[in-house]
Amino acid sequence: MGNWKVATVAATVLTMVFAAGCGGKAETKTESKEIKIGGNFEMTGGVAQYGQSAANGIKLAFKEANAAGGVLGKQLTLIIADNKSEPAESANAATKLISQDKVVALIGPAASANVLASVPVATDSKIPLLTPTGTNTKITVENGKVKDYIFRSCFIDPFQGAIMANFASKDLKAKTAVLYVDSSSDYSKGLAQVFGDNFTKNGGKVLATEAFLQKDQDFKSALTKIKATNPDVIYIPAYYEEASKIIKQARELGIMIPMLGTDGWDSPKLPEIAGAAALANTFFSNHYSAQDKDPRVVKFVEAYKKEYNQDPDALAVLGYDGALMMIDAIKRANSTEPAKIKEALAQTKNLQVVTGMLSMDANHDPIKSAVIIEMKDGKQTFRTKVNP
């Protein structure tokens, strides 16, 4: 972008701010025909699959909305900044989108650690941030205080951790479990805690907790120790790259018991790395299943495949649903002012999205259902749906 264009944009923004301060009529005075939304996503790096899928879902939702006449008579523009799957880069991306690109709201990042790094930037700038996929409870509430400008459109970790503990106890009849945790990830540690607490409440026993670090390649030493405890199930709350390698190496060591995971497993890379055979007898909690026969799911899957020539994973549908939530909020706010969008997001109620009916609770977390996926022949199959 040339310097004269930067100056023009800056002048336009200053005009809007001045007009808003003098009577709230900025939108009638500006000639802008677009609503700029920032997409802070993992386009490269360790969890690029997540960021790319979520961004694709948002792009599809925006394309459909724009084709139907836009929002408030304007076209939605998604400006993406690559956070490179790193917390520090996520904060930088948020800063760039807000200060340089002048977005009125942020969607993303995908991974909880990257969302948490972006929260102070959005909060200080009074720009609403909506993560479609970040499940860590601290994103929206910390030390009992709800973060005014921060929202999510996906379920939270305690919900999916409890779901899998109940599934292990009641469906798989497991009496003993081992937790294999990514000690470099708050996401993994938090989920392990919730699973362990609920599994114990159900009468089960956690025999051991083993740890690994993100980017580890060799898991056989810990897996050998796990094998010696002879558990009924292993719970691995982790992202797909490490989870797939753990599963593959566990099977090579003759560990054939059920292995349970989380939405972090959801990626086409899981069967690519682990191998279809190794994934037999594995299950994970997720936000939706492409095999769900709900008409909204069927319609979304068809539209996504037509647009991108690939099947949508959960991150794609969550990106799409997050975009629908943002669009709905802007329409109800009848404004592109960040403070008004923030208020409308907080008041979201009974919004029909692909993954179900969505309403915000007092903690800026949605009340919605989840599914459990079983891997068969390297493919995700719908096992059951769990309502909140």
UniProtKB/TrEMBL annotation:
In terms of domain of life, where is this protein from? Bacteria
- Please state every residue range assigned to the domain named Leucine-binding protein: 34-378
**What range does the record give for the signal peptide?**
1-19
Write out the GO biological process terms.
amino acid transport
Q: Does the keyword Signal apply?
A: yes
Instruction: Provide the alphabetized UniProt keywords.
Output: Amino-acid transport, Signal, Transport
Record InterPro entries:
BCAA_transport, Leu-bd, Leu_Ile_Val-bd, Peripla_BP_I
Q: Which family does it belong to?
A: Belongs to the leucine-binding protein family.
Q: What is this protein called?
A: Ethanolamine utilization protein EutJ
Q: To which species is this protein native?
A: Anaerosporomusa subterranea
